[in-house]
Amino acid sequence: MTQSAMPDVQxxxxxxxxxxxxxxxxxxxHPLTIVDGDHRQATIAECELTVALPADKKGxxxxxxxxxxxxxxxxxxxxxxxxxxxxxxxxxxxxxADVLFAMPFFVEKSAPVSGQKALMEKYITEYAFDHPKFVxxxxxDVAGTLADYPGIDGYRVTVENFESIHNHSAWAVIDRLGA
Length: 179
Description:
Elements: E1 20-36, E2 39-53, H1 62-70, E3 75-76, H2 81-91, E4 97-102, H3 122-130, H4 135-148, E5 155-162, E6 169-176
Parallel strand pairs: 1-3
Antiparallel strand pairs: 1-2, 2-4, 5-6
């Protein structure tokens, strides 16, 4: 019995001539390590991996996204993320690729007055009361910092304030996912 090669349907021609901006996988949870200077933190990310699909191609190879995630332990930093994204584009023969890793990332800091490491202290509470920020202020501050950071071509920032005196959350989003 001979084994015949499976046809590559995804690379075949599509006659509709409509390009797709982003196609890929999302909502896949995957372990990764984030490196920020000397700080390394293991976490679990919910991943969204997409590529642009030219108008003449039938589809993309969805299994290659998962294969890339599983190829080696995923260790990322702001310096290595662009290279990882380029590898994904090359693997999928795409002109552009986008990644989104949503995960908890904890930063341990010394408290500004006491020097102790704590999640909250009286000084921070009083400072926040004296210097209120709305979600619009916070998201613009973060987006401004990201826009000025070398090597970041695009970003999505989401800010949510769980309102203690209202029965809703305040929420804002800035998408600057690059060209």
